[in-house]
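Course exercise 7: structure representation. Students receive a sequence record and must write out the corresponding structure in token form. The form below is the worked example handed out in class, using DUF4305 domain-containing protein (66 residues). Read each field label carefully; the graders check that inputs and outputs are placed in the correct fields and that the protein name is recorded exactly as given.

STUDENT ID: A-19
EXERCISE PROTEIN: DUF4305 domain-containing protein
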Amino acid sequence: MRTSPLHTALFYFLMGTLFTYLAIESSHESIWNFSTVALMVMATLDFGVSLRLVALYVKIKNNDHK
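STUDENT ANSWER:
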């Protein structure tokens, strides 16, 4: 069974949310330490992949209806 892009997008969105939460928790004095910046970069990439997968899902659904 193939995995739906929507399910994968949800997974990436949840991972982005988790990385954002961890970055907020790790910023004690400054947000410019390595761990906070690395976690925010990972969260940004996860949110970007999630949006692209949702767009792919919509495109596939639109092509199926035509």
